[in-house]
Fold this sequence. Notes:
A: 111 residues
Amino acid sequence: xxxxxxxxxxxxxxxxxxxxxxxxxxxxxxxxxxxxxxxxxxxxxxxxxxxxxxxxxxxxxxxxxxxxxxxxxxxxxxxxxxxxxxxxxxxxxxxxxxxxxxxxxxxxxxx
Amino acid sequence: xxxxxxxxxxxxxxxxxxxxxxxxxxxxxxxxxxxxxxxxxxxxxxxxxxxxxxxxxxxxxxxxxxxxxxxxxxxxxxxxxxxxxxxxxxxxxxxxxxxxxxxxxxxxxxxxxxxxx
Lengths: 111, 117
């Protein structure tokens, strides 16, 4: 079945560590890609998005993601995490006018 | 800023009750969506609507219905609540740009945590 996969379910890091969260999708053709974040007790909000052009996309709060078409991947990165990055992160693919979400990655950052 | 509001943050209902979850957006968005969020399953689309009085089934519509009588309001209805419908329900809205109904991003409400006992 076509899907969006986030292989890291729970990631624990210390502050200043580097972060990479994996996202793979199995849809062919043109896709639009998103990363959403849900901070504790807050609503889901957009972190960054890719539609076309430069495959390296920069988002809010120092996050970036790289679209690698040949690998069907859209991994999220941040060079140095902060305690305030503790949240749940969702990758999503816009296909056929629907957003298909991954199962999410829970990130815990300890001081 | 886009604002999507949901009628309740927490709701407790009994099995068999009819439940209404309300969602209102204030940015004149054409498209509105209902998801449920469960641990380990991410967000799953229940229903969506791209115009007033229009509705489309998502991936898990069974046991749910929706109503969109006004552009800004999208209601999710649980006809006869069951314990397996205990979940976090998220509403979202988006603009139509060009021919795509999910062109750029969806704006989410704070969610309603529904418990069915």
